[in-house]
């Protein structure tokens, strides 16, 4: 079993999912000079990153540099968490493709609460309401799509929703197997099967 | 940007779904460690300068590099730890002897760890259930009967069961065998459980 991602504002140190989530980029503005790091900012040739430079930073770096008391950098909201998009999510959360917009819409939304943004309560509310609005459909789909191609159902889901969908599907499949009296049927491990699949494709190359 | 190599390692693991083990990326690890060494040295010299000449404006830069060092550390630790979890799962799926192709994907330290894990598990299983010990990797699903019908999916050679009978596991042949003897072979994909 891999290390599960953290819940809410907490990140799990060893979780691969959380590491990839914290790689998401945020629009930032520096509120101080970073001497000798000018080479990271391609837009100007100076040796330093001057104050008031707009640049994109991964979440982990913004989290590490951000301080409440001293102004080092300010984090701006990514497009999908701004008011315009929040109204869209409010209108009908089920029509948006969260995978294209995220794929860590919920995770990043929760992480944004670390930065003292005046719109934080609205963001938290929007993220929560979006999840509530979409959950029923996700659950329904995962419990009823049996022996079917689920790729179209899974495609617009956020990574959190995908994980939930997968759990629901494995529960459904286990239940169906039990109903058909196959629960005690022994089968080859999926690791072994996948490994063999890969070997066959290797042969074709 | 810093830490690009480190995230590449994580992506590589993540792409391999279902707990499969990709080849140990020694080169990637080395590059991350080199970047960390460079960051550390730059920080050392900047810290000295900030201290001796009182240049406090360097502090944001020092903190910036410090964050990158931590990030690299986290990525490497997570990479190694996730691999260990996968390797541990292999013991339960394949049994104590791994196929060469998989061993080929592990580094020397991981092989060493696997051997130690195997030993610990064996010692523990010997300590259970009286004289003979208990194989806890067996009967993960509760058994319904002692004997089961199996079909051979590939030639496996001769196979001895408890009462001393030797049977030949030939492709497409069908046998009625003690369940606990063939559970592992089924998991390895050599036998197939036939339910009538």
TrEMBL record, chain A:
Keywords: DNA replication, Nucleus. InterPro entries: GINS_A, GINS_bundle-like_dom_sf, GINS_Psf3, GINS_Psf3_sf, PSF3_N. The keyword Nucleus applies. The keyword Nucleus applies. It is found in: Nucleus. One of its GO terms (cellular component) is GINS complex. The GINS complex plays an essential role in the initiation of DNA replication. Required for correct functioning of the GINS complex, a complex that plays an essential role in the initiation of DNA replication, and progression of DNA replication forks. GINS complex is a core component of CDC45-MCM-GINS (CMG) helicase, the molecular machine that unwinds template DNA during replication, and around which the replisome is built. PANTHER family: DNA REPLICATION COMPLEX GINS PROTEIN PSF3. This is DNA replication complex GINS protein PSF3. It comes from Conger conger.
Automatic annotation (TrEMBL), chain B:
One of its GO terms (cellular component) is GINS complex. It comes from the Eukaryota. The keyword Nucleus applies. SUPFAM superfamilies: GINS helical bundle-like. Residues 144-195 form the DNA replication complex GINS protein PSF1 C-terminal domain. Residues 45-128 form the GINS subunit domain. It is found in: Chromosome; Nucleus. Its main location: nucleus. Belongs to the GINS1/PSF1 family. This is DNA replication complex GINS protein PSF1. It comes from Conger conger.
